[in-house]
Amino acid sequence: MANEVMLNTNFFIDVIENMGRLTEENRNYWTRLDSDIGDGDHGINLSIGFRAVKEYIDETDFSDIDIKNFLKKVGMTLLGKVGGASGPLYGTIFIKMANTLSDEKEITCEQLAEMLINGIDGVKTRGKAEVGDKTMVDALEPGMKVLEEKKSTLTVKDLDEFVEKMKKGAESTIPMVAKKGRAMRLGERAVGYKDPGAESSYMLFKVIADHLSRKLN
Ligand code: ADP
Ligand code: MG
Predict the structure, then answer these.
(1) What digits encode the pLDDT tens for the residues 5-43?
(2) Ligand 1 near 197 CB (within 6 A)
(3) pTM for the model
(4) What is the CATH classification number for the domain harbouring 84?
(5) Is the C-beta atom of 89 inside 6 A of ligand 1?
């Protein structure tokens, strides 16, 4: 059962390190998407951020660091090191996830779902974007809805649905005109291109689902 599975700081360190690896693999892809409708730096921005996070992980002794402190530091690093709009937005997700907790050394899957819900809510508040604005919210919010509905009994199937909804959400940005971010200036010329932040957020939050699914299996 989902709620017998407990997640500790190491689980989150693994997740974040894998997000960093994924970022290196997709640095050029995300940058190319951003060249179509932005300024061509999205993959570079996230790579700078996650490399700084990796440095922090490598030089830290985690024996006294709980999940909240770890995720807060990840968020602050992304917020501080990433130049683009995406840095504060991704930073906010991790800081809000952290703020959901107190000093737990281990948490349940339901708590993780609540953390993600808060994180995604934080992006919406900070960026003031709604579904349909051609931003990362288009990928994240449909995923969040699945978590809200299923959080107390999360199964691998629910996590698959979480990922599928984010993937479809990222694809849904292709025909959109942007109402937020740099692509807004392009008007109709942004139609036909996928939003880079929607694609990166779908792919990055899939990492959490993949790790959790392995635990539930
Ligand atoms: P910049 O636009 O400053 O160059 P990035 O290229 O790193 O920053 O990130 C661009 C992405 O940020 C966009 O594809 C979009 O998903 C996301 N974004 C921009 N503004 C907002 C906003 N107000 N709310 C949510 N997401 C946003
Ligand atoms: Mg950019």
Answers:
(1) 999 999 999 999 999 999 999 999 999 999 999 999 999
(2) yes
(3) 0.97
(4) 1.25.40.340
(5) yes
